[in-house]
Amino acid sequence: MKRLFCLFSLILLSFSPAVFADDMPNIESFQQFASLIRWSGVLFSALTVCAAWILLRFIQSIVDGISSQFAQRRMLLQKLQSFFQFFIYMSTGIAVFMMSFRVDDRILALIGGTIAVSVGFALKDLAASFIAGLTVMIDRPFQVGDRVTFEGNYGDIITIGLRSVRMRTLNDDIITIPNNKFLSEVTVSGNYGALDMQVVIPFYISMDQDIRLARDLIQEAASSSRYIHLPKPVTVLVKQTITDNYLAIMLTCKAYVVDTKYEKLFETDITLRVMEEFARNGIRPPAIALKSADA
Where is the Mechanosensitive ion channel MscS domain (predicted)? Predict the structure, then answer.
């Protein structure tokens, strides 16, 4: 095959020497590359790839069949399948390379340069996350157990590693965040190492209602909650506001929950108590006072 290729190149050069004079270095480079290919192994490489594909499909069918029969083993089987797939990919790639190329100093230099460039690009983000992890541990913008808000995600920090931080949301989802994200984004910590945390709950009533009575009812409901952290004060702020097309009085309850894990239970308990007291005392929600421009 190599001799036929060289003969064909010489014939072309003999017919058009002026045209191919400038392309001689490229032709020689291509000849050198062609000399590295083991043409007899290309067919076996194709067969190896087909065999690996069939094996992967067979494993997938086995995992699907067993998972449908034994649901409790599904997660374990999927983990084993992922590991086995990675092993097959790596083995097939190495086998195809060894069968298709003649390994010499040039090939080793090419592989070394490619791996060095690939590893450099891959480690760039890893190194940035590692340095950011050290910064997070030293600067401590949050701690393990803090309830934080980051990029629209809200939950508890469960681990702080050198590469990433893991957060458990209130929906029990686990979010993995690279450490370098914290160097450029704002992180809000609700409790910053403390067990208690302030909870803010807004209420809206009509303009003509008894505002002082509503404020007292909210204060009493919050103070008598089973989740209240009484060493810290309960505050109710009053403000006139426009919500959509409603002119209303907004009463904001600021109270501290005894433990961050009870935040939503605390908010629900206070809301139910306040709504019951509002209904018992005839305090009504806001009525429509403003109309939209299209109405």
Answer: 125-185
